[in-house]
């Protein structure tokens, strides 16, 4: 090979390997050694921190925890994942609310969509300004505090609350663009998505895990659930970790989840209280 050809080959290799990209879930498997986890949005009390340190992986509201508290939890080998709401902005999130523009809200019949139960509003992920706010929140609440990854909540709103087909497709494409930006800026952070099964195709190249919130035991009799279980089982073989959770003490959902090799927990006390 001529010297010029060798030089060109080296340059191409350097460009390829220096270009930031998200490793495929098949290769990463950051949760392969996780045997149990906890989802906790409450305050970082001494009792809570002791409980969280006993788990392999935890999902927390990072704005409530200090960097020192997070480091303390990680010192026991616990993987710490930070919550971020993608498609909704809750009123309590003052850091984000004060930066929002009127164009960041997704309107229905000219009005903002308010979820009274959570006191949150549906957002327009197609807006670059809104996506930049999310990236800023990831920096200050998750990356700067040294967390290991992020839990992307409310993604399912794209499937459940956007009825217009064109808007839905545009929002899914905006979500994929957002994940691409996240993976470029924070390649060290793992990602877990909550539900959003019909949007999963847009997210899979970036996802390390998926949480099935409101998992139920009767999945074999439910066509909707059975179809999605079949899909997730295929992705499990490629490296995707599937988590599941239910808000009762019933034993049957957990048994069914474990048969499918889902990492399952019960949360009868909700997410703001300690669950065993």
TrEMBL record:
InterPro entries: Aldolase_TIM (IPR013785), GH (IPR017853), GH114_TIM-barrel (IPR004352). This is Endo alpha-1,4 polygalactosaminidase. SUPFAM superfamilies: (Trans)glycosidases. Pfam families: Glyco_hydro_114. PANTHER family: PELA. Residues 60-247 form the Glycoside-hydrolase family GH114 TIM-barrel domain. Coiled coil: none annotated.
